[in-house]
Amino acid sequence: MDITDIPVEGYERVARCRDEASGLHALIAVHDTTLGPSLGGMRLWNYESEDEALVDVTRLARGMTYKSAVAGTGLGGGKSVIVGDPAEVKSPALFEAMGRFIDDFGGSYITAEDMNIGIADLRHVKKTTDHVTGLSREEGGSGNPSPYTAYGCVVGIEAAAEWRYGSADLSGKHVLVQGVGAVGGEMARLLKERGARITICDIRDEHVAELCAEHGYESVDDLVHLDVDCDIYAPCARGAGINDETIPKLTCDIIAGCANNMLLEPRHGEVLREKGILYAPDYVVNAAGIINVGAERLPGGYDEEQAMRRINRIADNLREVFELAEAEGIATNRAAEHLAEKRIAAARQPC
Ligand code: NAD
């Protein structure tokens, strides 16, 4: 196994691993451990080149630093990527080699699931390193993060409603949910329980029809979903949906959902502010997954009640972001960044 460090400015450690025996080609990036060891998922993707993988892993690791800093997980930011075709490269030997690579970081990087990686893969990783989270409850882990992420998003939507309307009560509020998968589906159900009127859209027509029949939602074709006149727009599918083309169509008061990297570019946060739409920054709203998995590291191990208490703090974190944005006259996505940087800088101060 060959592990080589790659110097990247602003990162504590970035390294490449090539292992001929298992075919592993992977990168790990640790961006910042000021607030604690870095935790971030392991992604398996068919990158065209190592350069492309390097851009992805460093961008994602930095994002985890900000997400964890605002969420108050006591963790830093890191990420790993395996280069390869998800349909071809997976094997126990590959993931065991990945575990040895992770172990080389001595605990400064802790892994979890990300795209194309499941619990079965993490079990192989766990054979060669202890720095793994997100295994099942039976195995001492915190289990599937999606229901927690969904609940955390509802907490975030209520906090945004309170800021915007002066009340967190969602009864009668019209919420448009784009993408009713693991998170969006559960989130829609919880919002309906709270009395909201729900319109859903998804590219899976049959799934939409089933959910509407079961829960009494309304539905709209994804291609025209922005024509729906809603109070709250909750993107829960893919990223980059808020852009120059879509913003002019938006008539909602609030954007809050679970989709990662919702804004195509950071400047779109400013465009939303000018338009008078309250944007609840994605990584503040969708942090419950990392909060839940991070709770595995609490003294005594994972405890759901304690994890839920931490997830409920998403409301306080968002309020802090909104207050900062208002006080500084800046967009909420910028305010979230400032809040993260402030927390990291405070931790760096000598006592
Ligand atoms: P998922 O794959 O279970 O659900 C995504 C849903 O979006 C699917 O039903 C899919 O059919 C639908 N979809 C895809 N493209 C669409 C389109 N153009 N229009 C409408 N619907 C479309 O994924 P998930 O786990 O629910 O995650 C959703 C988003 O939340 C992703 O951006 C993910 O990165 C983010 N997120 C998830 C978690 C988590 O705990 N699962 C945590 C943080 C962030």
Please explain how this structure is put together:
The chain has helices spanning 50-71, 92-103, 119-126, 146-165, 182-193, 205-215, 267-275, 282-285, 288-294, 304-312, 314-328, 332-348, and strands at residues 2-5, 13-19, 24-32, 38-39, 42-45, 76-83, 109-110, 174-178, 197-201, 218-219, 232-235, 254-255, 278-279. The protein is α/β, with parallel strands linked by helices. It has 2 domains: 2-63 and 76-132, Leucine Dehydrogenase, chain A, domain 1 (Rossmann fold); 146-287 and 315-342, NAD(P)-binding Rossmann-like Domain (Rossmann fold, 3-Layer(aba) Sandwich). α1 (50-71) crosses α12 and α4 (146-165) packs across α11. 42% of the residues lie in helices and 16% in strands. Strands 1, 2, 3, 4, 5, 6 and 7 form a 7-stranded mixed sheet that branches. It has a 6-stranded parallel sheet with strand order 10-9-8-11-12-13, with helices on both faces. A hairpin with a 4-residue loop joins β2 (13-19) and β3. Residues 145-146, 149, 178-184, 201-204, 222, 236-239, 258-260, 286, 289 line the site of nicotinamide-adenine-dinucleotide.
